[in-house]
Amino acid sequence: FYLTPPQVNSILKANEYSFKVPxxxxxxxxxxxxxxxxxxxANAPIEDRRSAATCLQTRGMLxxxxxxxxxxxxxxxxxxxxxxYIAVSLLPHETLLEIENAVENGxxxxxxxxxxxxxxxxxxxxxxxxYFNSLRTYWQELIDLNSGETTDVREALINAFKRLDNDISxxxxxxxPNSFLNYLVLRVAFSGSTACVAHVDGVDLHVANTGDSRxxxxxxxxxxxxxxxxxxxxxNAQNEHEVERVKMEHPKSEEKSLVKQDRLLGLLMPFRxxxxxxxxxxxxxxxxVVESGPDQLNDNEYTKFIPPNYHTPPxxxxxxxxxxxxxxxxxxxxxxxxxxxWETMHRQDVARIVGEYLTxxxxxxxxxxxxxxxxxxxxxxxxxxxxxxxxxxFEDQNAATHLIRHAVGNNEFGTVxxxxxxxxxxxxxxxxxxxxxxxxxxxxxxxxxxxxxx
Amino acid sequence: AxxxxxxxxxxxxxxxxxxxxxxxxxxxxxxxxxAEPHPLxxxxxxxxxxxxxxxxxxxxxxxxxxxxxxxxxxxxxGRLAAGTTRFCAGIVSTARPVxxxxxxxxxxxxxxxxxxxxxxxxxxxxxxxxxxxxQTQDRLISLKRIASSLNVMGIxxxxxxxxxxxxxxxxxxxxxxxxxxxxxxxALVSSANVSLALATAASRNGVQIHExxxxxxxxxxxGRVTGVETDRGRIQCDYFVNxxxxxAYELGHSGEEPVHIPVHACEHFYLLTHPLQAPLSSSxxxxxxxxxxxxxxxWQGGILSGGFEKNPKPLFTEGRNQLEIQNxxxxxDHFGPLLSALLRRMPGLEALQIMxxxxxxxxxxxxMRCIMGESPTxxxxxxxxxxxxxxxxxxxxxxxxxxxxxxxGYPSENVWPxxxxxxxxxxxSRTFLRHRVMEVMPLMYDLKVPRWDFQTGRQLRTxxxxxxxxxxxxxxxxxxxFERVKYFVPPGSxxxxxxHSKTFYKPDWFDIVGSEVKCCxxxxxxxxxxxxxxxxxxxxxxxxxxxxxYLFSNxxxxxxxxxxxxxxxxxxxxxxxxxxxxxxxxxxxxMISPTDQQVHCWAWLKNRLPDDSNLVLEDVTWxxxxxxxxxxxxxxxxxxxxxxxxxxxxxPSLFCKEMSVGxxxxxxxMSITHTGEPGFVxxxxxxxxxxxxxxVMNMGQKYGIRNAGYYALRSLRIEKFFAFWGQDxxxxxxxMECGREFQVKLDKGMEFLGQEVLLEQKQNGVYKRFTMFIxxxxxxxxxxxxxxxxxxxxxxxxxxxxxxxAYSYTLxxxxxxxxxxxxxxxxxxKLVVTTDFINQGEYEIDIAGQxxxxxxxxxxxxxxxAQRRRKDEVELSGYQRE
Lengths: 454, 882
Known about the structure:
The complex is a heterodimer of chains A (454) and B (882).
Chain A: H1 5-13, E1 17-20, E2 32-40, E3 48-55, E4 61-69, H2 73-90, H3 93-104, E5 113-115, H4 128-145, H5 153-174, H6 179-190, E6 192-193, E7 195-201, E8 204-210, E9 214-220, E10 226-230, H7 240-248, H8 255-258, E11 259-260, E12 263-264, E13 274-275, H9 283-292, H10 295-299, H11 301-304, E14 321-326, E15 331-337, H12 339-344, H13 347-362, H14 376-393, H15 399-409, H16 418-425, H17 429-435, E16 439-446, H18 448-453
Antiparallel strand pairs in A: 1-2, 2-16, 3-4, 3-5, 4-6, 4-7, 6-13, 7-8, 8-14, 9-10, 9-15, 11-12, 15-16
Helix pairs in contact in A: 2-4, 2-5, 2-6, 3-4, 5-6, 13-15
Chain B: H1 2-17, E1 45-51, H2 55-66, E2 72-75, H3 84-87, E3 91-92, H4 99-119, E4 126-127, E5 130-134, H5 137-152, E6 158-160, H6 162-168, E7 179-183, E8 187-188, H7 191-204, E9 208-210, E10 215-221, E11 224-230, E12 233-242, H8 248-254, E13 264-266, E14 269-273, E15 286-289, E16 294-299, E17 302-307, E18 314-315, H9 332-345, E19 354-359, E20 362-364, E21 371-374, E22 381-385, H10 391-408, H11 430-443, H12 466-471, E23 474-479, E24 482-488, H13 510-522, E25 525-528, E26 533-539, H14 543-551, E27 563-569, E28 575-585, E29 588-593, H15 598-608, E30 615-619, E31 624-630, H16 634-642, E32 656-661, E33 664-670, E34 679-685, H17 689-700, E35 706-707, H18 710-719, H19 755-764, E36 768-775, E37 791-794, E38 797-808, E39 813-823, E40 830-831, H20 835-839, E41 843-847, E42 850-857
Parallel strand pairs in B: 1-2, 1-12, 2-9, 5-15, 12-22, 25-35
Antiparallel strand pairs in B: 3-8, 4-8, 5-7, 6-7, 10-11, 11-12, 13-18, 13-20, 14-17, 14-19, 15-16, 16-17, 21-22, 23-24, 25-31, 26-29, 26-30, 27-28, 28-29, 31-34, 32-33, 33-34, 36-39, 36-42, 37-38, 37-41, 38-39, 39-40, 41-42
Helix pairs in contact in B: 1-7, 2-7, 2-10, 4-7, 4-10, 13-18, 16-17
């Protein structure tokens, strides 16, 4: 059984998406040129999610990857909702008032976000009303709080993360009269998701991370080589500070049982996450909700199961760590990816592969004949060769796809081995998860000219 | 290096030839040592100021001075012939599909040929001939069509076999060719030197030439040019000619009152090589390989080869910037595909050494035709620009026509296809131009089949019904920025690629249009005709009537509610416009004209209506949606919707009444359909458009109503011998020449424009006659279809060309309309065309070299008119241009 190159390509490209910040005949004021994103599922259905949107009422662009576990419900909800929470947190008081007035009077709402979605990236229609009401409660509280201070992006990101997680938890406790929705909010709350979100506004880049997805900046050194700068810390057992933090938050008596086999309470890989109320609620609350919940929930062994050594919840938080970075002209791109990528590739390789891909696409040195003696035939040969080189790079129109191709297909020499690629992609569903994880990648490209002009 | 060479050459030539510098010693000629001669001061006033010292500016100066104009000043911001002209490939090619362009190129060729003798300036003129290659049968057909029109103009031209190509040019690979067209008299020139020769001759005739003088703007007062401001002072003038090439747009916009000149530059690349081992003969013909997108000419023993690539690079969208023409980059990767095509065509050139890749910007226009004429808003402001990279071919002829225009008020040929007034402000958006020229440039060498449409710059002007019609399968074409329906693809039919069907034969939509025509004949169809130009003219007293009576040939003093078909004629009795005018009240008139008349007609009326604040001319085009209800059941639909009797007794033909349709009131209903079929046009205030359309479609259901498009309309009007302005009628055609005497009231009791000529023609006869031809032995399925521009032969002799054609579903034959002349067999002189002359001939129409028998008719088939509702006045006019 062997996949032909076109078959491989159709699998790799099925979820690819590109967005170019609209440029009006050379007039481009955004520091972001655009982004490429892609996903390759290993789970069926895939548990990763991705989001990208432009803030319409404030400046800036939001991009994020979300790695779900115990189902995709939580990652889905976070991918739909988190950017609204962030955008609302960033809004000035007057805009909030305007929006609230519009809702109050049934007038048309100012659009808050312009989404950039692949056709496969869906939004839940059924829950939109519920989600909207929670969001509205949030902005009403923001209006009441009116601190009068200008919104700090770091704070906005932290507030938005925490608030959304809180709403997820509350919705599950309150339930919904509609049985479908009721089941949905419970599934969201009992599953979990990491989130790694970037907010780019001019030269200000903020990355808010919860969990073990990662953000990495691609930097081109003066000699043209590529290096990687981490813009997030993984929240897992490999991060000493994280382990330290968890231990600090619980009594000494639990020290041994807190992290076992590199997992939180011996169960959970990421040390921070959305949802996962099994690690946040008290045992009583969990039991009450599960018992009063729908039968499907009751029959589910996982939801009924209480983690061992569960004494002082919460053990888990959705609060992100935020890193601020001032973009410089040598900062060429940002990669946001779920751990599926980072497990297989070193960030240094990621920087190099993406960097070379992007420059190969954009900067092939122009030829000048000058004073040399060149014949038509020689020139023709040279041009044909250049075209061939470009088209091999152009096999992927999308930097994220290019990266996935390397992540899945790289042999020991660091080049794509088609046979390996074919084998990895033709694994049956039940085996795929053993060899690779879901991979979700967003590659954001920066406009050095705009950044340099700041 | 080659650029430098040309540059040096042109400097030397110009100085040697220029009287002022004649005595200079040769050592002073070198650019580095020459001190700038003290510039003559600018004159304070002149009759004509020409801006631009390229081929266009110098040609206009040359012709104006030849025609006796004194007091002409030519201003050039840099050096003469230093812009696009200097870089131009220097190919003079007459093989042009548009007849007026063909004439210009033909004249240019003759002019350049004798220019060296006339001026003493070496022009490098060399008659090499040109060969256009066809790699496909369709390409060969398009070449044959051009060959037909060249031949009837007396320009030698033949279709040759690939083998013959090889004899004429030994380097060519002919294996993929199906044929070629050979034009032996095409030539090569040094374009900069042609321009300098023209300047020299002009200068001898008294034209003052000032280099290094740039025009900052043109001053316009009360709609007239009064002078130009330059960096060296002001010159008062009566006429200004904008020949600024790719800067024409900016120059047009520099003044307070902008003159919109829609041109946009694209980079154009060509390659220069060192000489071959055995240098190529300078008489070797030029090769044009449109399927390979390239041209190849001999150049100093080597070759010069360029082309029109699929992915052009537009530039200067934001106007002029620091990028000077000289600094444009060579882009070999961009040139790659053209180089491949070159080596495929001439594989033997592999070892030839490259000299340079020249990047030379060329200006392009939105419709691939050049721009000439007077500004619609500023009298005396003339333009000649946008040559679409054929400047050297057109230069001579274009300069001549523009000079005639300035001197005589009109050129000696119909130049409407090139007239600046075919464009309005709407084609002047830089975004539109940038996108459109990216389509136009590759189109230079694309195969142009009948009825192709531009794909860029679309959906600019639309009817409020656009989405409704689109959802019902409408396929669209565009006129003056307005989207119009060609036909409706019935639901369920799998004709997705219908728009892409490119053929010279029977098109895919044949049956679709056939069924729309059938519905027009038997039931009722709706055609959205909102694109028409609509003006209202009203006055407090009789001023409107009096002015219109002078400007229009028919009698407009008709009872209120009558509609009059009439021409808007020029002094020579020719149609400047053909329109329908409804008398809304004693003192107000509603005028319908073809879509592309919006600018021209407005300017014509504005310039001629008395300056009287009590007389108001208003453009109401955008205010009304027009629905044309065609067919015998239109009357039923409308009477049900209005509760008003619509039969002939109550609503005779050529009537106009405001009435209600459905809930909507104030709908102007006119009993005309522009096709000769019974029916009505509804002029609906746009906010009611959707309502009225819905009502009409609902009510019409029981009468079998359906949507139809312009192709159906066209078939209907042509089979009824209706002439359309812009297609059949032009400023050189009088009503007498197209059988429309009945639309002229010579005795209306007052003088009108063109009256004298018409009276003279009535007495002495006409020199051409609009005639209808029915193709006899033409197989609709198998034979090439006629389009327009096909030569007409009478008793084997060429007598004229067709102007439009369509398949008549009623006659089940092709119908061609066209003009028949009577050329004296000995002298070629034009003689009077009589009815007998028309009737007593055997006719043939030449479609791409194949002749088909045709029957000539001067009157339409009366059997085609389903019913005559007003005995005396059958609607015998249609007018919109296709």
